[in-house]
Every structure is written in structure tokens, then in C-alpha cells.
Amino acid sequence: MSAAWKPGPLGNRDIFAAYICDDAALDVLRPVVSEMGWQSEKCNKGGLRNAVQSLAISASPAILMVDLSESGDPLNDINALAEVCEPGTVVIAIGQVNDVRLYRDLLSSGIHDYLLKPLSPNQLRDCLTQAQAVFSNPRGADGGEDREHIATAVVGTRGGVGASTLATSLAWLCSTEHNRSTALLDLDVHFGTDALCLDLEPGRGLTDAIENPSRIDGLFIERAAIRANENLAIMSAEAPINSPLMTDGTAFLQLQEEFRSAFDMTIVDLPRNILINFPHLLAEVHVVVLVCELTLASARDTIRILSWLKSNAPNAHPLVVCNKVQPGVAEISRADFEASIERKINYAIPFDQKAAVNAAKLGQTFAEANTNAKATAPICEIARLIAGISEDDGAALANSSKGGSSLLGKLDLKALLGGSKAKAKATAAQ
């Protein structure tokens, strides 16, 4: 028998509530709920629609179980539930449709688990125990010490240079190839494409965070972030274009702080306007990947942003990445570009339209869809660099960037990249 759970502060929220369609399932659920030390009276007759109606006028519980058996469109109805559900609520769905795709879609939408009818006591007991553990010990909250965390911002000097394409690929590579738990934060609230690149619905997580910064905590991150894979979570938005961004940046800072506790790495896809309006977002960022192209306008804005970073984010190291490089057809040469910005381009990514189309068709990041493409190799090197540094290295990166010197000429790349001396020299010569 499980001991009665002693929760933290919940305000006026109940610990548990359920909305179940049939008496048979209720008869199995109620004894298990009593064993957990919760009120069996919170097991209500009625499915998901009843839950939505009830939670529209009352606070949602910490753990919510909803029955989808009478739902004609479970995913759409779950989204309706999210509109009235308190951020941080652990939601368990039950139903009678045995479909792997539905199961995955429900988990992607933020559901904790999906149980098939007929229910069994052991199945319910295990699921509720896991849900209780998630609520009482949110991810990242169990460590007594601050975990080491590396934050990277990806900034495009111009629209269309491929900053989002690079950000999603870096996040995917860090989470898969380097096995780092990674958060991807897309701060283009109205027109962000990071979720689209990962073939995911953006959800309401970022919008809810902006509207209610005080709700942001470990539980909120568990509930609101959309999982792309086991190690990668994304928070983004697709806000209505008739709703201007109304925030003082507090939500963004709090999200960064929670990510610091819950993940090994954060990749922030940072639009230029957000960078300028909220410079404090770079206070804890170690590396700024500045994505440019070989055009006059991009050279001008690379100079301006590098100067701005030097004054406003001295602890963040800029890494200049030139994207969509086409030898012989560039508006200005690489040599002229480097002369104008007074520093070397750290990485050059060749233009590959076919590979970009392939990624879009597959609904995958550029790096995932084109593992053998020539353009993927420098992206993998950048991911290896940022995944291999520590917080101390991050401080060294910032120091090495002062005076406009090239990062790769001053670092011990063998230690940083884990490669041979020859490979380190080849990388430094790029």
C-alpha cells in the first residue's frame, strides 16, 4: 500500500481528479486512488468534455486522469483541455483505441501516459505512482548541486540566412550524437519555424509562459515543453499575428533559469529584434553562433552585431558561421567579408538546395535528413564544439574573443573536440 502523499504547496488545487466514462473503469480506479491516500470522491463520472467544462471554472488538480473513450477527435479535445488546465498538471489519458500513432501524438502533446481499457489495478497503481514522482520531484529538482549547463544562442545577421535551420540541427545533434539533454527555445513568437523543422506542433507552452511568467517552474517545463526525442525538448509558439508581443522579458529569463536546472544544454534561436530589446538574455549565454552570408548587407550587420555583443554581452563568445556559401557566385568574396568584419569566419557551410528540400519533405532537421551531405560536416563540427565545452571553457571562450581574435586559434581543440592534433589543426585552419 502506498503511503499518503504529502505534497508541496498547491494553493487551492486538489492532488488528484479523474473524469471517467464508464462504471467498470471507475470501480477499478477508486480502490487504487484510496490506496494512494487520495480522495476517491474525486473520481467523477464523465469523460474529457466533462473535465473541460469543470476545469473551466475551477483549478485543475496536480494529477488529472481523463477518459477519451467518447472523444471523436482525441488530439483536438486534448488541446481544448490544455486551454483550461493549469500549467504543470500531470495528465493521464485512458481510452480504448489501440493505436501507436495516437499514443505517440498524445505524448507529444504533453500527456504523461495513455492507458488502454480495460484497466487493471496494477497498471493504474504503477502509472499513478510515476505521475506522483513527476509532480513531487520534477526533472532537474533532485540534484543537491547546480548541474553544469552550456547555453548557446543562434542569431541570424539577416532574415533568411538559415539561423533556425542551424539551431534545430545543433539541438538535434547535441541530443542524439552527443547524448546531452537539450532544450531548444524558439523566441520568434509569431513566425518561428523550429517546431516546423522538427515536424511538431508548437503547442501553447511559450505563449502561456509569456502571459503568466509567475507560473514558470520545473512542473511547467515538464508540462509545456514538447518532446522531439528522449533528449530534446522544444518550447516555441505560433502566436496570432494580430497579437503583439507584450512582455518585459521576465518570462524568457525564467525559462532560461528552469532550463539550466533541467537540461545539460540550451539552444536559443534568438531573432535580432529580441536580442536588441532584451540584451539581458545573453547574461548566461556562453556562445553566440552568428549566422551570416556573403552579402554586403550581412557584412554590415555582422559588424554591427559583433560590436553590440562586445559592449552588451562581454561574457558571450561570438562564433561566426557563414551559411549558403556558393563559390564564384557570392555577392562579395570571403576574403573581403573577413576583412570588413576584421576577423575570420569560423565555419563555412556550403549551399545545398537539394538537401534543404529533402529535410523539409522528411519533416526532419537538416543534419538528420542529410547525414552524408557536404553541408552537414561543418554543422557537426559546431555541435561537437559546443557539446564538448564546460562552463569553465565557456568563460575561456569569452576571454579569447576579446580583441577580435579567432576562437579556434587560441583553444586547445584536442581537449575541446576530442579529436587528434591533426584534426584540431585542420579545424583551426578553417
UniProtKB/TrEMBL annotation:
Gene3D superfamilies the record matches: 3.40.50.2300, P-loop containing nucleotide triphosphate hydrolases
Protein name: Pilus assembly protein CpaE
Response regulatory domain mapped to chain residues: 15-132
SUPFAM superfamilies the UniProt entry points to: CheY-like (SSF52172), P-loop containing nucleoside triphosphate hydrolases (SSF52540)
One cellular component term from this protein's GO annotations in UniProt: cytoplasmic side of plasma membrane
InterPro entries registered for this protein in UniProt: CheY-like_superfamily, P-loop_NTPase, ParA/MinD_ATPase, Sig_transdc_resp-reg_receiver
Keyword Isomerase carried by entry: no
Record keywords: ATP-binding, Nucleotide-binding, Phosphoprotein
GO molecular function, one term: ATP binding
